[in-house]
Specification:
Helices cover 16% and strands 56% of the residues. It contains two helices and seven strands; from the N terminus they run E-E-E-E-H-E-E-E-H. The protein has helices at residues 42-45, 64-71; strands at 2-5, 10-19, 22-32, 37-41, 48-51, 54-57, 59-61. The strands form two sheets. A five-stranded antiparallel beta sheet has the order 4-3-2-1-7. Strands 5-6 form a two-stranded antiparallel ribbon. A hairpin with a 2-residue loop joins strand 2 and strand 3 (22-32). The longest helix has 8 residues, at 64-71. It is globular and about 35 Å long.
């Protein structure tokens, strides 16, 4: 599934991994449109952030319709 970062980038979740030093922590492994691989704790990936006095999801799911618009030149 693809997600839009609140700053505008589009990312795709690759997998969910366990942190070696603390297996109770789930890590989201995701990649950007240029292929760069990133990771964040699951709770951080899905948390809300404050932007201009409003709370927005850090990463919001991209609907299929929105994804098609992104891919259409």
């Amino acid at each position: 599934m693809k997600y839009r970062h609140y700053k505008g980038g589009i990312y795709e979740i690759v997998c969910v991994a366990k942190l070696e030093t603390d297996p109770t922590v789930s890590m989201i492994v995701y990649k950007s449109s240029d292929g760069t691989i990133w990771t964040r704790p699951e709770e951080v990936f899905f948390e809300s952030v404050k932007v201009n006095d409003a709370f927005l999801p850090r990463f919001a799911p991209v609907s299929l319709v929105s994804a098609e618009k992104l891919l259409t030149p």
